[in-house]
Design brief:
Length: 328
């Protein structure tokens, strides 16, 4: 397994990680036994970067990951997040970056994960009501206490990243990045490379759309949150499907599944970029890992990018109510 560095502080991770969110929520019904088997197979295959968060489930995903890594803690690079607050209303999403909340959240995550330290601790979304220096200052206290090793941010804007990094070195910023979500390239990625911060790419398969599994809206399970995502709805779905068909044709010519091509494209963006595709099944995990063996030439990359130019993708990547939490 190829290793990549996240940041300049010494954090080394496999080139491919595993996003664990869907094992507990959001993508239809979960199969806990298959999820556990998938997590353990990931470790066997060298995919040792596991990404979770306290709000997934909520809480259940950290507990699941904690069970999966029992007896194998030393082999795992464990990443989790705090900062998105869930309420009794499943649709409610608040944010909290207050220092006392940061400290409490970390202790709670450690208990659920059954570990003594977290390797990479992210602020899940930036709290506009709390100066980032205060939030990161509390996170730095966790590093000093030995509860956390490296710090990260998720969906943070360029100026926030600069201010946070000045308070304490940030090793990684996590954001959505794929063939159909490339806005990070405009302002965030240049700042990360200037400061020596790694990029962890979530949803590198476009929430599964880029795998070609979904040919119509009705293919999504009834309780799947993607039904509320603009890119999966009505005319947007049809327009995006036309783009995907061109990408799928390129993949077929190379003997690849469209998802493998899409994932290999993200892997090609630089050794400071680490995708964390989410999957809940072993067969999908085994398909994804083959992307590590795929390498494109300059002309091939150009052809792939012409097939799905960012400006042609229809719909925003989140509903309007959630866009305000991005790139803060």
């Amino acid at each position: 397994m190829e290793e990549r560095a996240l940041g300049l502080q010494g954090l080394k991770v496999p080139a491919l990680g595993l996003g664990c969110m869907g094992m507990s929520e959001f993508y239809g019904s979960a199969d806990e036994q298959e999820s556990l088997a998938t997590l353990r197979l990931a470790l066997d295959l060298g995919i040792t970067l596991l990404d979770t968060a306290d709000m997934y489930g909520p809480y259940r995903n950290e507990e699941l990951v904690g069970r999966a890594i029992q007896g194998r803690r030393d082999a795992v690079v464990l990443a989790t997040k705090f900062g998105i607050v869930r309420g009794e209303d499943p649709a409610f999403r608040g944010v909290n970056g207050r220092p006392e909340y940061v400290l409490r959240s970390c202790d709670a995550s450690l208990r659920r994960l059954r570990v003594e330290h977290i390797d990479l601790y992210y602020q899940h979304r930036v709290d506009p009501d709390v100066p980032i220096e205060e939030t990161v200052g509390a996170m730095a206290r966790l590093v000093k206490a030995g509860k956390v090793r490296y710090l990260g941010l998720s969906e943070a804007g360029p100026q926030t990243i600069r201010r946070a990094h000045a308070e304490h070195p940030i090793s990684a910023v996590q954001t959505e990045y794929s063939l159909w979500s490339r806005d990070v390239e405009k302002e965030v990625l240049p700042v990360l490379r200037e400061l020596g911060i790694g990029l962890v790419a979530y949803s590198p398969l476009g929430r599964g759309f880029l795998t070609g599994r979904f040919r119509k809206f009705e293919d999504l399970p009834a309780d799947d949150f993607r039904r509320h995502q603009p890119r999966f709805q009505a005319e947007n779905f049809r327009k995006n499907l036309d783009l995907l068909d061109v990408v799928s044709g390129i993949a077929a010519d190379k003997g690849l599944a469209p998802g493998q091509l899409a994932l290999a494209w993200v892997l090609s963006r630089g050794r400071d970029v680490v995708p964390i595709p989410g999957t809940t099944r072993r067969r999908h995990l085994q398909e994804n890992i083959r992307a590590l063996q795929i390498h494109f030439g300059r002309e091939e990359l150009a052809a792939i990018e012409r097939a799905m130019p960012p400006e042609a993708v229809a719909g925003t990547r989140y509903p309007e109510s959630m866009l305000r939490l991005l790139n803060r």
